Task: inverse folding
């Protein structure tokens, strides 16, 4: 009988500690879940931004071809104005379809090839990590930055969103 009473007393003493550990575990679990959801949302948004930028670059190159340059000098060029307008409208249409209103877009063209220094403006936007874009052929580059709302990272950094950067380029290749 004495054994039972001692065991019950010990269980009563441990209840407070168990409740504390349970509360701490619940907080850690909630923060972990928020971090996983933030990483997932950032990953999905980045993939989507790359897809939009790639499709816009291809559209700009396709619609921006200057066929008159073939007759003049025998080589294909880009009509810079048309290529940039087409790429810009493709990005804006895709973002409007999803209701995205806050974004940063920078579209540039290399009508005869060349190098654009400092583009894209953020090195992690391009998978090679460079900030100098170059092409030996006529090309168009699309840089897109989207603000992604976050929960856990907002608690850590004190902001409500994290920027996602994407860059894609497309070039005209001459068939030989």
Result:
């Amino acid at each position: 009988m004495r054994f039972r009473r001692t065991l019950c007393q010990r269980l009563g003493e441990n209840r407070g500690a168990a409740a504390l550990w349970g509360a701490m575990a619940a907080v850690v679990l909630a923060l972990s879940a928020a971090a996983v959801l933030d990483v997932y949302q950032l990953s999905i948004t980045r993939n989507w931004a790359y897809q939009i930028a790639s499709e816009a670059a291809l559209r700009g190159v396709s619609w921006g071809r200057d066929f008159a340059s073939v007759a003049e000098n025998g080589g294909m060029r880009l009509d810079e104005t048309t290529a940039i307008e087409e790429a810009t409208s493709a990005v804006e249409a895709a973002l409007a379809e999803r209701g995205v209103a806050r974004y940063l877009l920078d579209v540039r063209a290399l009508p005869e090839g060349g190098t654009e220094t400092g583009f894209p403006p953020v090195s992690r936007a391009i998978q090679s990590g460079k900030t100098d874009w170059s092409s030996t052929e006529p090309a168009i580059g699309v840089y897109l930055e989207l603000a992604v709302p976050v929960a856990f990272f907002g608690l850590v950094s004190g902001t409500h969103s994290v920027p996602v950067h994407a860059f894609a380029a497309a070039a005209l290749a001459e068939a030989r």
Notes: Strands lie at 65-66, 77-78, 103-110, 114-117, 132-135, 139-149, 161-171. The chain has four helices and seven strands. The helical segments are 2-63, 68-73, 80-98, 152-157.
